Amino acid sequence: MSSPDQPKPLPAALSALQIQVLAHLAHGATVTAAAESVGVHRSTIHNWLKAEPKFSSAVEHARNEYVETLRDELKALSALSLTALRAIVESKNTPPAVRLRAVLAVLNRPQFPRQDWALPERIQPLESEQAAQSYTLMQMELKHETALEKAALGLVPTRKSPQSDT
């Protein structure tokens, strides 16, 4: 029996051509691209997927492994990206416009504050309410900071007090 960290051995019943196709599909290639790479028609691969359970199972397993690999890489890249964003936001040498863009990149990222967003960790139901409140507070603070920065740069017209025309 193989450990979870080791790849599952390929079924002995696969042909050399099927193993080549499997290798392409395992790295994210489409059925059409895999077929072109090994010199078969894509319908051949579709037929194998329908008629040969061992091939179909091997492809499913390979695709799942590929997805897990991508997920792990995305988590690692996310951690590096957050570190870089933190350095930009916290640096006193970062121009305000760049700092604002970095903050907006974090706040406006897709999926937030959805409960099913899974990077880096799944938000639990109780924590999701706190996260939503924190998000609202951060938005309010950001709007305030943006308004202050615009005012400091003279980008916001000043209000004139109403005067009577007598």
Task: Fill in the keyword field for this structure.
166 residues; mainly alpha; 6 helices; 65% helix
What does this structure look like?
- The protein is an all-alpha fold.
- It folds into two domains: 14-80; 91-153.
- It contains six helices and no strands.
- The protein has helices at residues 16-26, 31-38, 42-51, 53-90, 96-107, 125-153.
- Helix 4 (53-90) packs antiparallel against helix 5.
- The mean pLDDT is 76.
**Class of secondary structure makeup:** mainly alpha
| Number of extended strands | 0
Q: Let me know the average pLDDT.
A: 76
Strand content: under 5%
Shape: elongated
Radius of gyration using CA atoms only: 27 Å
Biggest sheet descriptor: none
In DSSP terms, counting alpha (H) and pi (I) runs of 4 or more, how many helices? 6
| SSE series | HHHHHH
Brief characterization of the structure:
The protein has 166 residues and is mainly alpha-helical. It has helices spanning 16-26, 31-38, 42-51, 53-90, 96-107, 125-153.
Q: How is the secondary structure organized here?
A:
Blueprint: H1 16-26, H2 31-38, H3 42-51, H4 53-90, H5 96-107, H6 125-153
Helix pairs in contact: 1-2, 1-4, 2-3, 3-4, 4-5, 5-6
